[in-house]
Design brief:
Blueprint lengths: L8 H51 L5 H10 L5 E2 H8 L3 H13 L3 E5 L7 E5 L1 H20 L6 H20 L3
Antiparallel strand pairs: 1-3, 2-3
Amino acid sequence: MIPDFRPIAPLMQGRILARRKKAERKDIITAMGERYLKSIRLLAECMQGFERFSSDFVRQYGLTHAQFDIIATLGNTCGMSYKELGQKTLITKGTLTGVVDRLEQKGLVIRERCPRDKRSYYVRLSCAGEQVFHDVFPKLTKQGQHLFDGYTEDDFMRLETTLAGLKHAIANGHG
């Protein structure tokens, strides 16, 4: 005698459909994740590529990328606190101290106690640091412009709008 499966067929069919829907949802989530990761990876690759480009350039002047980042940030200013410098360069406080130490040893920056708060330091370019800034920054800027030779004003506006939106979403922790 052959068993009659008709009464459980709708139940089995429901389970099969539920599994398919779950697999489809997983595929959609995976596809969204891959799309998001592809964009983030591309953004990171652009940043790394530009850092390599600028690092190779400033190395000709005996500087690391981080050292030149500090010189460029301090250029055309009267100096700033470590906190300001860290925020503007995106260099962590622990790394920042070592980089400033090496720039001070090279005679490119001067570190002074902040007159208003004796616990903090103020960093500014020395005369030699000012000279490096005025020599290297325009050359690096000119070289960097070549990377964007094909960009129109509209291209820049779209890129800046998109990146500003992403920055805002990340800062607020949501899309």
